[in-house]
Amino acid sequence: MRYIIATVFITLGVLLVLENIGIAEFNMGNAWLYIYPTIFVVLGVKWMVDRIRHRGGSWVFGSFFFIFGSLLLLDRFDVIAFAFKNVFKLWPLLIVYFGFMFINRSKGPVVVVEKNGKQVNGKHHKGSYFSVGSHEYNEPNWKVEPMNLSNLAGDFYLDFSKAYIPEKEIPISISTLAGDVHILIPENVEFRVYASVKAGEIDVVGQSVDGINRNFSFETANYQMATRKLDLTLKLKAGSVRVDYV
Hints:
Mean pLDDT: 77
Number of helices: 4
Structural class: alpha/beta
Distance between the termini: 30 Å
Order of helices and strands: HHHHEEEEEEEEEEEEE
Largest sheet: 9 strands, mixed
Number of domains: 2
Shape: elongated
Low-confidence stretches: 104-130
Radius of gyration: 22 Å
Helix content: 25-40%
């Protein structure tokens, strides 16, 4: 609720400024015509951000409200013609959402194990730069194996605090053209990571870099001596990498 209240005040203030400098003309009677589309946009963004952070949210409802609110605002500023009743014209989005249901999406302990370029001893998920979708590994007691994951666009979420990690060095490679990578690692598990982004941000246990063509390497103090350890290679064209202790 506080987001809605804040949005109302922010929008009202911006509209009054625009009126005072002659960019927009309106009175308090039609201010609501600008406020409620802005609320739609804010709610849409919030739901999408919550989904990225794995705090609930929804891509479907978030993106729909964001698109709907944006179109209404563009109408208010005479960029396009779009009224509230035209919401039915957005029905093709249902086809888009339905299509994404069939695109590569994995949940749980789905791994690709590669040796000499061939897949062995693993389930039959195969990453590809032609796929789009989210990859989530957060099922209780999922078994960690060597993984080589890639896709065109999408997010990766790996929660190693819920996993069974064998006593060995386990290489994990993730690459995507656009997306976010979020990894949770227990404090008693040694790891090293090499991360690179062409445009975006890298944050590894509180150490961060951001901008263009960024690379970051990190290794825990006892990595070389440990028998159970994770070797992470994360490569993104655009997006963010975040590795946290839990």
